[in-house]
Design brief:
The complex is a heterodimer of chains A (94) and B (102). Chain A is α+β, with helices and mostly antiparallel strands and 94 residues long. Chain A has three helices and five strands. Chain A folds into two domains: 41 residues, no CATH class; 49 residues, IHF-like DNA-binding proteins (HU Protein, Chain A). Chain B has 102 residues and is of the alpha+beta class. The chains are: A alpha+beta (94), B alpha+beta (102). At the A-B interface, α1, α2, β1, β2 and β5 of A face β1, α1, α2, β2 and β3 of B.
Chain lengths: 94, 102
């Protein structure tokens, strides 16, 4: 399922709204989630899961082509943990 | 601060002009549609945010950490999330001490 298919599904779920509202709502939700993580906040959606950041310390990496050492600075990476309901529904179907 | 469904619904109420009921239902519907797709076995690709994929894990031996007793971990299907380049780039710059999470 892609973003545009998700928008179409939601538009069909809310026939009283104009299609543009579903489109705008999906973009607004995804932007708010991105902004929250970019601020360093967590996202907790009961029954779906949580998004948090994991810390990656600085390290010395290597350029795989030249073999040259390069300093890789510390960074944060997004991490998703599925919630109980999502975990159970996905596994049940499988 | 933690972002939850309540804050997302407030945002749709304030910025998209949905009424409170619609805003709440839209947020619930958004996550439910993703769950339905994953439950069906479809992966979900939200461009600019990330992809939710499914992995089938075979059975593997496990252990009860308390008793040391060996118990198999059954085969299962799990959801994994892969952040898009855009989302990764947005959080990577968080390295100054003032903005550390949690």
């Amino acid at each position: 399922m892609t973003k545009s298919e998700l928008i179409a599904q939601l538009a069909a779920r809310f026939p009283q709204l104009i299609a543009k509202d579903a489109d705008y709502a999906v973009k607004m939700i995804l932007d708010a989630m991105t902004d929250a993580l970019a601020r360093g906040d967590r996202i907790e959606i009961r029954g779906f899961g949580s998004f948090a950041l994991n810390y990656r310390p600085p390290r010395v990496g290597r350029n795989p082509k030249s073999g040259e050492k390069v300093h890789v600075p510390e960074k944060y990476v997004p991490h998703f943990k599925a919630g109980k309901e999502l975990r159970e529904r996905v596994d049940m179907a499988g | 601060m933690t972002l939850t469904k309540a804050e997302l619904a407030d945002l749709l109420f304030e910025r998209v002009g949905l009424n409170k009921r619609e805003a709440k239902d839209m947020v619930e519907g958004f996550f439910e549609e993703i769950r339905v797709a994953l439950e069906r076995g479809d992966c979900v690709k939200l461009s600019g945010f990330g992809n939710f994929q499914l992995r089938d894990k075979p059975q593997r031996p496990g252990r009860n950490p308390k008793t040391g007793e060996e118990i198999p971990i059954t085969a299962r299907r799990v959801v994994t999330f892969h952040a898009s380049q855009k989302l990764k780039a947005a959080v990577e710059q968080l390295s100054d001490a003032s903005k550390q999470p949690q």
